[in-house]
Amino acid sequence: NFIYHSWMRSGDTLSAVTYCPTVITVEINSQPVTISEITNYPFENTIRFRIETDSPTVFTLRLRKPDWCIDTKLTCNGEAVAADFTGGSYALTREFRNGDEIVLTFTDTITFHENAGGVSVRKGALLYALPVKERVVIEGLRETNNPEFPVYSLYADSQWNYGIRPNCETTFTNDTLPGIQPWRQEENSLRITLRGQDIPGWKIRTFKRIQGRLLPRDPCTWMDKEAVFTPKVGPVTSDTPLGEETQLTLVPYCSTRLRIGIFPKLP
Q: CA-to-CA distance for 63 and 104, rounded, in angstroms?
């Protein structure tokens, strides 16, 4: 067995275990085979595999099916093909020729998940979150005294204390292809909109004494310093005071710094 980027090999079986753009070249039956994997996954659910080989070669291409996938389409050169499904992946065994293109397409849906006392929203491989506008406060300089890398704190500068109802009506939009850095919020257009409701009693907590470090490599000690924290997600009952409903726009979780990824579950 070997691991090469996101691939594994066992005999004449090549397994794509993590989908990402990559190119591998291996030797099968004394024949060099190059596979180019072309995809914007996880910002899209289509993965293309292009085969380059000097002469026809028989091997098995094993393709993982994610647990969130509700349907799969597999084609070779535009025609549907059958593949054995075992152990959570499809095994396509055939004589591959130069120029063959295998296309794997997943179908997903928006799902709600109970999470740490609240509820989270997911679509496909991505978790979604409510982005919170940042207020940046420079606290000082690190031990290198480089002003380009200061110690700073981020504080919420927009409302964040919303709850949602699981399985509420949602709308998904994705208007443009992802940019060069798709994990930046401005370079992907994946959005989920749904209705949330203000929870006035869910507020930032302020502490006067915290554990922390004076310098990055110092041990943690108790210090008299004011700090603010997002409170834990607590239960919302029929007696909990609620504010107005509003439309929320969620973005992929890792394209944010300040965010709410676990929402109180509204009754």
A: 8
How far lies 169's CA from each of 43, 140, 164, 172, 248, in Å? 22, 45, 11, 10, 12
Q: How far apart are the first and last CA of the chain?
A: 51
Distance CA 198, CA 163 (A): 7
- Spatial distance between the Cα atoms of 56 and 157, rounded to a whole number of angstroms: 60
Q: How far is CA 243 from CA 157, 196, 217, 263, in A?
A: 19, 10, 44, 15
Q: Which of 264, 259, 233 is nearest to 127 (CA)?
A: 259
189-236 confidence digits (pLDDT tens): 999 999 999 999 999 888 899 888 877 788 989 988 888 888 889 889
3-state secondary structure of 261: coil
> Are the CB atoms for 207 and 227 separated by under 8 Å?
yes
Of 131, 137, 197, 185, whose CA–CA distance to 158 is shortest?
A: 131
Asked if residues 25 and 34 have their Cβ atoms less than 8 Å apart, the reply is yes
User: Parallel, antiparallel, or unpaired for β 191-198 and 162-164?
Assistant: antiparallel
Q: Which residues contact 83 (CB under 8 A, 6 or more apart)?
A: 63, 74, 90, 91, 92
Whether the model pTM is above 0.85: yes
> Any bridge partners for residue 153, and if so which?
137
How far apart, in whole angstroms, are the C-alpha atoms of residue 199 and residue 248? 14
